[in-house]
Amino acid sequence: MVVVGIGIRPNTSLFEGQLTLEKGGIKVNGRMQTSNTSVYAVGDVAAFPVKLFGETRRLEHVDSARKTAKHAVAAIMEPEKTDEFDYLPFFYSRFFTFSWQFYGDNAGEVVHFGDYSGNTIGAYWISKGHLVGSFLEGGTKEEYEALAKTTRLKPAIDDITELERQGLGFAVTVSKKPLTSPPTDVSDSTLVLERPLFAWHATAGVIMAASIAAFAYWYGKRRRRW
Length: 226
Fold this sequence. Notes:
This protein is an alpha+beta fold. It folds into 2 domains: about 10-85, FAD/NAD(P)-binding domain, CATH 3.50.50; about 90-195, FAD/NAD-linked reductase, C-terminal dimerisation domain (Enolase-like, domain 1). The protein contains 5 helices and 9 strands; from the N terminus they run E-E-E-E-H-E-E-E-E-E-H-H-H-H. The strands form 2 sheets. The protein has a 5-stranded antiparallel beta sheet with strand order 5-6-9-8-7. A hairpin with a 4-residue loop joins strand 3 (about 45-50) and strand 4. Helix 2 (about 140-155) packs across helix 4 (about 170-175). The longest helix is centred in the last third of the chain and has 28 residues, at about 200-225. The radius of gyration is 21 Å and the shape is flat. The chain starts with 20 loop residues before the first strand and ends with a helix.
């Protein structure tokens, strides 16, 4: 059996000519309001301003979907207490014992670090002399938080070779510097199991595989009857 994930794209045809569209989605402001201020858009379909990079982006990930929705609700319920959305782009995935987290933007020159024979590897992205993105596989909660804070600070990088030598230690050191405007999402943007529940994942995988196989067998027999 082969499973192919081909992806999807937002269906914005319903809103053409009614709302402003941009970058394949519905353009919103920092409060998730569309060009019709009584209409809000969140999640994969929303193209919102990312303060960190000074441009509008549409992000396809569950973390962005959750946080844009939360911000929209706050803007609707308490508009006078709700600031502009200030989001650090964040992506993650977890497969059995493997997990990784990415922050920021994958633009510019990439610098790899870590022990590829071990469990922890990572990368930084450098654009226009500043660190704009970071990736880590197999990190701890504290290490992921350090990466998130460092990426938000966008530190200047003068020596890429030295950055590669320091590796994860660079983020740990830089993250200890105070943020000029504390973000609301850094502490939430860490989803790590320091001791992966391999047995649980394996059991779930076996159950799912058996269920799919049973359905395929049943469906095959039914088609033969037809």
